[in-house]
Specification:
The chain is of the alpha/beta class and 401 residues long. It starts with 10 loop residues before the first strand and ends with a helix.
């Protein structure tokens, strides 16, 4: 429900506590508050499907991630469609290569799955020429002989976990941001938002049951669905007209009132995007309260798998961002550094949080349009040169791991 930064997302994370001071490059960052007594996972997103990265550059990206002090890699191999092009026939060779590469860089794996539906489980009328759209599987929505049990995805998850359980995979994130109904969880047959939310809850439950059947120690996360505070929604509604935002809100509210969703999580995955230190903490706390209201008061730890801020002033000074953050973070590189420290210090102080991730390691190629997806968010630029914020992240990891 935040401004979208990418389609399929990959994360590297290091189990650390927060650094009490930071800085990077020539920009000196003032010290933050003292670190908490518990450990929190720090992370970075790596999107291998960015045009300037690709899997041929995986060794360089893995080295950059490891060099910044991280110890976990969240990654994917193209999704379900790539892994099971023919029903019941699994192709995990690319996933195995990525896992081996991560291991060679001394990185564990947190795995993003789903995010694409194979052709044999697509709903009628799906646009098979547009690979930027992910459809809700037909056997989750009744579009395939009336089936709604998502059993095909469950079988896939079981096979996948059996394949990776001895390869360092301890976390599985199920389908990125399904509340984006125009891109990530497209329906058919005039399904309502409520019906689509119910379909995702069934899919998540199938993943949870089958993953734990294969490996009782696996941890299942949702794909970044969160409750936004009303004050933030009031701002977003001014700058994001049209049905997309309201549909996302309705979808997420439906999820958080569905016991099948609420009882199918080991860790709650929340995306805070570029909403800053105040709203990010409120997003975490509102989401935790909602999940406990739904599951009977059971605590579910929160991993913030997307937090981000651009170093490009044209992005930093967009009216929507200034409406949320004021003019505190509008000075380019140093503001990106300060934003990271302020937001992560706020999140790490929250007892609900067990992990925080930054989006991305590498910038996508920037066209000059400040509204471009992901512009300036990386800790290295699009040619893999380290930006000042890289040293800030590196110093935090070194001092606190």
């Amino acid at each position: 429900m935040q401004r979208a930064f990418a389609g399929l997302v990959f994360v590297a994370a290091s189990l650390t506590t927060a650094c009490a001071s930071g800085g990077g490059g020539s920009n000196q960052i003032p010290p933050g508050p003292p670190p908490p007594s518990r450990s929190v996972a720090f992370g970075e997103d790596v999107n291998f499907f960015q045009s300037n990265i690709g899997f041929s550059n995986a060794p360089a990206i893995l080295a950059l991630a490891a060099g910044s002090g991280v110890a976990w890699l969240r990654t994917g191999d193209g999704g379900w469609a790539a892994d099971e092009g023919t029903q019941g026939q699994y192709q995990f060779s690319l996933l195995d290569q990525l896992t081996a590469g991560a291991s060679g860089a001394h990185l564990g794996v947190l795995l993003q799955i789903g995010d694409s539906t194979p052709s044999w489980d697509l709903p009628p009328g799906a646009n098979t020429q547009n690979n930027t759209i992910a459809y809700a599987p037909a056997d989750c929505t009744g579009a395939l002989s009336g089936e709604t049990d998502c059993a095909a995805f469950g079988s896939y998850v079981k096979a996948l976990v059996e394949n990776v359980m001895n390869l360092g995979v301890r976390y599985v994130v199920v389908w990125n941001e399904p509340q984006n109904l125009d891109k990530n969880w497209v329906g058919s047959n005039n399904l309502s938002v409520s019906q689509l939310a119910d379909a995702y809850a069934r899919l998540l439950n199938q993943a949870y049951v089958n993953a734990h059947a294969a490996d009782p120690n696996i941890e299942i996360l949702n794909g970044g669905t969160e409750i936004l505070p009303q004050a933030l929604l009031d701002i977003l509604e001014q700058y994001e007209p049209g049905p997309a935002l309201q549909n996302a809100i309705t979808f997420t509210q439906e999820l958080y009132s569905n016991p099948l969703f609420c009882d199918s999580l080991d860790i709650l995955d929340v995306h805070v995007g570029d909403h800053g230190p105040l709203f990010s903490k409120e997003i975490v706390d509102d989401s935790e309260r909602a999940i406990q209201k739904c599951n009977g008061g059971k605590f579910v730890p929160v991993w913030v798998t997307e937090s981000a801020y651009s170093d490009i002033q044209a992005v930093q000074t967009q009216p929507e961002l200034e409406a949320e953050l004021g003019t505190t973070y509008t000075s380019g590189d140093s503001s990106q550094q300060q934003y990271l420290l302020d937001t992560w210090h706020a999140l790490e102080s929250d007892p609900n949080v067990v992990g925080i991730d930054w989006t991305f390691v590498a910038d996508p190629v920037y066209s000059g349009n400040p509204a471009q997806d992901g512009a300036g968010l990386g800790i290295v630029d699009s040619s893999f040169n380290k930006k000042p914020v890289y040293a800030t992240m590196q110093q935090m990891s070194k001092c606190c791991s």
